[in-house]
Amino acid sequence: MLLIHCPYCDETLPESEFAYAGEAHINRPADPSALSDEEWRDYLFIRTNARGPHYERWRHIHGCGRFFNAVRDTVSDRFLMTYEAGEARPDLTVKEAAE
Amino acid sequence: MTTQRHEFDPTPFLVEELPWAPRFSLRVRPEHRAALAGALSLELPSKVGQRSTAAGTEVLCLGPDEWTILAQDADALTTASSAAYAQIPHSLVEISDREITLRISGAQALTALTTGCPRDVEAMPVGTGARTLFDTATIVLWRDDRQSFRIDVWRSFLPHVHAILDQVLVELKSGL
């Protein structure tokens, strides 16, 4: 079982309290009717499918109930970091340099 | 003829259903927390999991903007809430009938909880609480003492949770 750090509870808790909620940092277009079908398809369905660090949303559904963002390595399944929703996409090179 | 002596605890833990009590769910944005706490004369802890007790009313912080209140005087609370509503936007919802509270206490209460709860319940400090899981049912777990817990279970999940606890009780009694 994965252990996930919830940035709101500030605790590292078992995976079964959490729910995965797709890729993070995808903004809904401000004016959907101005988009072409291809652009709208890309917004709805096309995802990065990253190999390595993946920015994704999680929800602490059986806990504080909050959505937050996480960076998970899709190869090793390790969580590199978690951060509150609304924060900018973190720069991983800065984090690596600090460690 | 030799007889085997068993020294199993005849009452590993006790499950009691607590009587009905008024329960409220309070949601307010963090910037209005202090003002609302003053208006309701409650202490609203800001850290998830922390509890406060004042004049028999218990407050548990479930999330950054969510609290559960076990009110001693429900009418006073709702009156204070509606008086403050215009100045301090918040939501106070009565949820007394949504959940049923069980008290689990005894020497092996911790063992009973670990059968269903994925959290490290032992590491949970006394006097805190949290929303978590028991098997597949969401519960609110309150740790009152080292070996005394309360769990709030949604009433439709109660037979399921109770059945698991009964099974655990039988197994612990028989020494499994």
UniProtKB/TrEMBL annotation, chain A:
Name any one Pfam family assigned in the record: SoxD
* Highest taxon above the source species: Bacteria
This one is known as Sarcosine oxidase subunit delta
**Species the sequence originates in:** Paracoccus rhizosphaerae
Q: What is the lineage of its organism?
A: Bacteria, Pseudomonadati, Pseudomonadota, Alphaproteobacteria, Rhodobacterales
Automatic annotation (TrEMBL), chain B:
Q: Which domain of life is it from?
A: Bacteria
Protein name, UniProt field: Sarcosine oxidase subunit gamma
Q: Which organism is it from?
A: Paracoccus rhizosphaerae
